[in-house]
Amino acid sequence: MELSTTQMQNQGETENRHWSRRAWIRAAGLGSLTGGVALASRGVAGGQAGPEGSGPDHLGNAMGPVGRVSTESFDPTAFLRAWNFSDLPADERARFYRETPRQDGTLLREYELFAVDREIEIAPGVFFPAWTYNGQVPGPTIRATAGDRIRINFVNQGAHPHTIHFHGWHTPEMDGSLPAHQVMPGDRFVYEFDADPFGVHLYHCHANPLKRHVHKGLYGAFIVDPPAETPRPPADELVMVLNAFDTNFDAENEVYAVNTAASFYMHEPVTVRVGERVRMYVVNLTEFDLINSFHLHAMFFDVLRTGTTLVPTETTDTIMLCQGERAILETTFRHPGDFMFHAHQSEFAELGWMGLFRAEERTHSD
Ligand code: CU
Ligand code: CU
Question: For residues 70 and 223, what is the distance between their CA atoms, to the nearest angstrom?
Fold first, then answer.
């Protein structure tokens, strides 16, 4: 973050022995990122293009990694629309999530979460030694309705002490933040609290050193829906966690993303429908960089800061989010086609925080 793009370029080109973040990225196969946008406008992928006429991948390659991450253990497309383990088959899901109706009409929602150390793929061929909740980064999205009781059975299967610190109202002993709250390797703890207030929140490990425990991957989205009497209007809902990875442990990020895999949605656009409301739950869990942002091309969106309101507070095409800050963004696509979204910090965008929406017209069979 201290060097200008030109300085970085020079560094990469003239001081190859200096292992700058961009030099590292190039070596790791993420491509000629600094020249990507200009080259893309000419339809040439910076010397990495496939054979003539090899198809629409040209554009994606020029603006991000070459190749694809494996989606076997974590699929960023499935993650967008998964909460409470809805991406698992029913029998498997029952091992991690249970709902029990309570007398007052609310639900008891019980979750099995565990911390486990695991290598994850953050860009094609680039692996990161992560600390994860349930083997994935971000961790599983937790979703409840305001007033529901949440019970998290947490088991620490990792090699370090961890906790789960939820944002929201709860008693101090459920906060997962003080030294006494640390769950030692092999131990377990039950977090229990009511879902309050409604909004888009987050959870993360709060063991020391905090920075390390967060940037290693121990975080996820926590969505609380408004009470049933005042629901949000129906929408196509998407979970987007802004994150980044310090791959060489120099306290700076080398890879940026939405939902972990750099530039993933450039290759696999987020498909949406023209004329249908889209609701994005955007949570910034980027460590080291003080701010991140979300910018959408050719459109505007309504902002519901922290999601704690039913009425938009702002209409814009770019919002800034501090570490831990989040917002609900709502919009309706007017036109079919591809719409870019990315951090408006160009550096983050070039290092992987960039994607596409693909808006499709409804057909009669829908
Ligand atoms: Cu931790
Ligand atoms: Cu926090």
Answer: 27
Q: How many CA atoms lie within 13 A of 188 on its CB side?
A: 10
Tell me, in angstroms, the distance from the centre of ligand 1 to residue 170's CA.
20
Of the pLDDT bands very low, low, confident and very high (cuts 50, 70, 90), residue 366 is: low
Q: Are 253 and 244 in contact (CB under 8 A)?
A: yes
CB 234 within 8 A of CB 179: no
The alpha carbon of 61 and the centre of ligand 2 are apart by a number of angstroms equal to: 35
42 against 282, higher pLDDT: 282
Reported as a single tens digit per residue, the pLDDT across 186-237 is 999 999 999 999 999 999 999 999 989 999 999 999 999 999 999 999 999 9
Q: Which two tokens stand for residue 231?
A: 């629901």
Which ligand is closest to the CA of 322, given by its number?
2
Phi, psi of 224, deg, nearest 5: -115, 115
CB 109 within 8 A of CB 97: yes
- pLDDT (tens digit, 9 = 90+) per residue, 330-351? 999 999 999 999 999 999 999 9
**pLDDT tops 70 at residue 183:** yes
Tokens standing for 98?
Answer: 């249970």
**Mean pLDDT confidence for 242-270:** 96
Contact by Cβ (8 Å): 89, 80: no
Å from CA of 206 to ligand 2 middle = 8
Ligand 1 centroid from CA 123, angstroms: 23
Which ligand is nearest the CA of 325, by number?
Answer: 2
15 vs 282, higher pLDDT: 282
Task: Using the mean position of ligand 1's atoms as its centre, give its distance from the Cα of residue 72 in Å.
Answer: 25
Q: What is the DSSP string of 42-73?
A: TT--TT---STT--THHHHHHTS-SS----SS
Q: How far apart are CA 258 and CA 255, in angstroms?
A: 10
